[in-house]
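Try this one yourself first.
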């Protein structure tokens, strides 16, 4: 990662301020910032044992607001690709795309290794790893294929994934199924990655290999949205088309849910339609309010998160682990990690409800990051990945 100062007139990097003509597409940065702030909130509760239901993932089938965050980010990656990669001069882009993907994958693997660096059991999949793979696939598809082809690929990926998961028998088990440990994706993860899977299960992974295919469709849906926003259609018409497309996707999700249930861990095709539909509607609303109607004053706090999205995600995962390496002695002779000690000292005594204390801890973590990121934003500094 490379820090860089940005002059006031400079167009920020591909994950920062984008432009439609001469106007910055602040709606994209705002939407990204909202998503990243929500990601930090749900990933850093004060106490993992006391979390309000909307801030947890669905146990299996179904969804919660928390389940929307990661696919929203992949959708935003797709929109950013449509703005960041040039339409004409694309020579040499494949190498740059591959390099950035490797960096993102490496950062995710580093988080999984830290602090023990036990390569024998390290989890290979992960959030940043999936972002890297989706970015790699969707960027290459964007520069190599036409918009119509990208639309057909979304349909092909979603239908193909459904057919594979619903009808292909699972080796060493039997009929196709959608259970956590016995579905075809879990079998493939165990076969290819062995014990290098999610530490909670070690026999399946929510960011597994097979479910990366529909995740690519999520990124491609963002590319189509970005292509529409870059078009010469009237701005109001763009917002309407985004919203209508979102409605159609939600209708498809409702129908498909009847026989291929919405499920984040499996990243089912109905889940892709649900989350892409809601992301389209959210982007349409942001675009209409911010870039069309000009209501921009409220956006700065969220843009501060948006322009350093990968940086804050990486560090917000790393810093708690560093804090837990610092041990604070207790009166009974035991010790606590510094993060747990801070929570027990400054939050638990002041809240009657452990759920409120846990939420307050998470909100404080977000606030601390806001202060840091807003200071960087004011100085026009981003960290380029």
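Now uncover the answer:
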């Amino acid at each position: 990662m490379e820090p860089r100062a940005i002059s006031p007139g400079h167009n920020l990097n591909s994950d920062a301020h984008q432009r439609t003509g001469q106007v910055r597409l602040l709606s994209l940065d705002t939407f990204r910032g909202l998503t990243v702030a929500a990601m930090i909130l749900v990933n850093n509760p004060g106490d993992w044992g006391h979390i309000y239901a909307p801030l947890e993932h669905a146990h299996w089938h179904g969804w919660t607001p928390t389940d929307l965050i990661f696919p929203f980010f992949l959708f935003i990656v797709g929109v950013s690709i449509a703005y960041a990669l040039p339409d004409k001069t694309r020579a040499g882009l494949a190498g740059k795309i591959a390099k950035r993907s490797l960096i993102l994958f490496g950062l995710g693997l580093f988080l999984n290794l830290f602090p023990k660096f036990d390569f024998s059991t390290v989890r290979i999949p992960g959030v940043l790893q999936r972002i890297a793979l989706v970015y790699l696939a969707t960027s290459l598809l964007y520069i190599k294929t036409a918009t119509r082809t990208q639309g057909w690929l979304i349909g092909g990926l979603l239908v193909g994934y459904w057919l594979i998961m619903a009808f292909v028998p699972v080796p060493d088990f039997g009929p196709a199924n959608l259970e956590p440990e016995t579905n075809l994706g879990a079998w493939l993860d165990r076969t290819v990655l062995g014990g290098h899977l999610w530490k909670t299960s070690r026999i399946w992974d929510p960011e597994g290999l097979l479910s990366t295919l529909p995740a690519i469709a999520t990124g491609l849906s963002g590319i189509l949205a970005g292509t529409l926003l870059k078009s010469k259609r009237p701005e109001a018409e763009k917002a309407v088309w985004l919203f209508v497309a979102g409605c159609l996707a939600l209708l498809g999700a409702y129908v498909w849910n009847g026989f291929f249930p919405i499920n984040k861990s499996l990243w089912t095709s109905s889940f892709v339609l649900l989350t892409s539909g809601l992301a389209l509607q959210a982007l349409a609303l942001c675009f209409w309010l911010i870039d069309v109607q000009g209501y921009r004053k409220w956006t700065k706090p969220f843009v501060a998160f948006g322009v350093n999205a990968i940086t804050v995600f990486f560090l917000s995962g790393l810093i708690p682990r560093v804090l837990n390496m610092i041990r604070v002695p207790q009166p009974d002779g035991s010790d606590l990690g510094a993060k747990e000690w801070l929570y027990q000292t400054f939050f638990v005594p002041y809240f009657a409800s452990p759920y409120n204390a846990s939420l307050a801890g998470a909100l404080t973590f977000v606030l601390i990051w806001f202060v840091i990121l807003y200071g960087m934003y004011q100085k026009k500094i981003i960290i380029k990945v």
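Discussion: The radius of gyration is 21 Å. Residues 2-384 form one domain.
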